[in-house]
Amino acid sequence: MTEPLLSIRGVKTYYGKIIALKGVDLDVNEGEIVTLIGANGAGKSTLMMTIFGSPRAREGKIVYQGSDISRMPTHEIARMRIAQSPEGRRIFPRMSVMENLQMGAAINDFAHMDEDLKRVFDLFPRLKERINQRGGTLSGGEQQMLAIARALMSRPKLLLLDEPSLGLAPLVVKLIFDAIRDLNRTEGLSVFLVEQNAFHALKLAHRGYVMVNGVITMSGSGKELLERPEVRAAYLEGGRH
Amino acid sequence: MANETQTGGRSVDIGHAAKDALLAGLIALGLFGVFIGLQTVQDISNRLVLKVRPEALAVIVGIIVVGRFLLNVFVWGREPSHKAAVASPSGGLLGMFKRLCFLVGVVVTLVAVVDIGFRLAGGALPNMPISPPGTMGLGSIILIEAVAALFGVVLIAFGQNMTERAAALLGPAGIGFLAAFPIIAILGAGWGGSLKWIDNFGIQILIYVMLGWGLNIVVGLAGLLDLGYVAFYAVGAYSYALLAKEFGLSFWILLPLAGILSAFWGIILGFPVLRLRGDYLAIVTLAFGEIIRMVLVNWVDFSGGYAGISGIPRPTLFGIPFNATDEGFAARFGLEFSPIYRTIFLYYLILCLALLTAFVTVRMRRMPVGRAWEALREDEIACRSLGINTTNTKLTAFALGAMFGGFAGSFFSARQGFISPESFTFIESAQILAIVVLGGMGSLYGVVIAAVVLVGGFEIMRELDFLKQIFGNDFDPALYRGLIFGASMVVIMLWKPRGLISTRTPTAFLKERKTVSGDLVKEGHG
């Protein structure tokens, strides 16, 4: 078996004295969509931010493409072709859509700007219509598209998505999840998806992990997890759309 | 179109406006008839007698009639079309300019009309001192003011009919005006009188415009609240003063050197505050400003302490000094010696320095580092996760902002010939910051307008002699500067909470330049 693209081993993260991640093991293989589901406060977003080095893992190893990135500064991790669409989208509200996308391409020194713009506009045609509009005036769904498009502008090998369905209408969620599936199929992009919307996320993902209170309690293929009664009881029943 | 005029696609009923104005005049006559039309004065035997002042009354009523008429025609009558203009895609600068034209037009017109009125009325009233202080006669003063009033009205009309294309010419037109300003001042006020205008208004305002533009890089673009900007101004000023006096180096060598030294101090300040934002950053930068000042006060051997440094060499025109000697500028060019040559030279010098600041800012905004500054202002975490080195980004902003502060500082000490720590107190930092914030963070035009209003407003207070005729001879407008400064800040913040020009122009466009003004598009619409 080949080495995974991203491998997280025994990672512990603290906020001051409070422990948020109590030793997490997780792998993302090349060309895979992996999802992490869990309740609010389980530590999902903390894990995602820990991969990016803020906050830093106090113990454990995060190995990406064979090199340990757990001690690297955030901006250098981004330069290793890991891109992130963070929780709450965090687009630049007063800058135009175009400028937001340019910021995404900054680490490539704008080398393939036109090509990459075409690629994200094919994926999200709505963004092209909004190109000169300020980011803050976009709708929630458009902002999410922009956050993903901005991340894609850096030509990542691994895309980290933190709750892309947060606060969006079901149709928009479907559009965004379809786009993620497309990217994975056509370009072989590896995706690590943190989600509350367990049903959609597990259906989309090849493999999934369940996190409870900073510990991974279950893992398996997306289909397996969907059928597990504990998962159904905790995350799906009553929550399905 | 006998009775109607077409303004901006909607007709205005002139007849109605005239009727309304006359009615307002009648009410004003009733209200002011007693208060202004009659005056009690003491005669020789100390008895109070009533004096009738028909001229003063006529002036006040006239202002109200004219003002009401203008408001009817240009503002209220246009209400629907005015709304239409707002709804059409117009840049923030254009909207701002329209409002500014209106405001300035109204103020200029009213001030001119009031002054004419009081001068005319004053001529008939012995106890009302009319004082054309100079040699100008009453007639020519009134003529100038009538022209000013007319200019005000034209400005109002012009502002209302401003188009997007004309707004694009504002920058070049503004630079043209600044370049011609000394000539206008000389033509307008003569050799002697123009000195005050070029020095107190031109140079003084331009120094603050330059400082505002420099601080704008740090506060407006990078979003780092800096309350100690005056420290870099001081570093520049003392660098020039000390190096010029000790080593006799010329202004042209020391100007870049002062800039580099200031940039160096900018980086020194930058390092400890890299992790700070908002309030905490503000406090540390405030402390930094005070540290620099306290060092200048207490290290007497180095800086002369409170006594400051005097006899700082003046800048030369490529080696030609501006003095009365045979080697001086005037003698070399066969002119009669006058201090005004140096003032004009200094004016163009600070104009060039300020324009350099603006040019660099505009270019930087289009470059990756400038875009990173703005992204940093918006969201630091997002910036870092996009691979931006926030440390370097912040340090370049601090260094560049400080460098322009240093340029301005060395210009300041060369212009004054004397500097002391008194010139670099916290209130200076506050004023520069006020210019940036009131102008609208990140907006170059906004800084200019705010600097003209705040600094120019300070200076103009000295000139408003006619106010004495309203409030009495003991009234000194200059004493109310602080009050008016504060009040105008409050008014601007209520009127435009994000500064005078709050709309940001994007720096990147896809193919053609087609902006859809963001604040007019409904969220999730279309």
TrEMBL record, chain A:
SMART domains assigned: AAA (SM00382)
Superkingdom field: Bacteria
Pfam families on file: ABC_tran
Residue ranges annotated for the ABC transporter domain, each copy included: 6-238
The keyword Transport is assigned to this record: yes
Gene3D superfamilies: P-loop containing nucleotide triphosphate hydrolases (3.40.50.300)
Recorded GO MF terms: ATP binding; ATP hydrolysis activity; branched-chain amino acid transmembrane transporter activity
Keyword vocabulary terms for this entry: Amino-acid transport, ATP-binding, Nucleotide-binding, Transport
Any single biological process term in GO: L-amino acid transport
Family as reported in the entry's similarity comment: Belongs to the ABC transporter superfamily.
Identification of the protein by name: ABC transporter ATP-binding protein
Automatic annotation (TrEMBL), chain B:
Any Gene Ontology CC annotation: plasma membrane
UniProt superkingdom: Bacteria
Subcellular location: Cell membrane
GO terms, molecular function: branched-chain amino acid transmembrane transporter activity
Main subcellular location of this protein, as a coarse class: membrane
Membrane topology classification: Multi-pass membrane protein
Keywords noted in UniProt: Cell membrane, Membrane, Transmembrane, Transmembrane helix
Positions of the High-affinity branched-chain amino acid transport system permease LivHM N-terminal domain: 19-111
Annotated protein name in UniProt: High-affinity branched-chain amino acid transport system permease LivHM N-terminal domain-containing protein
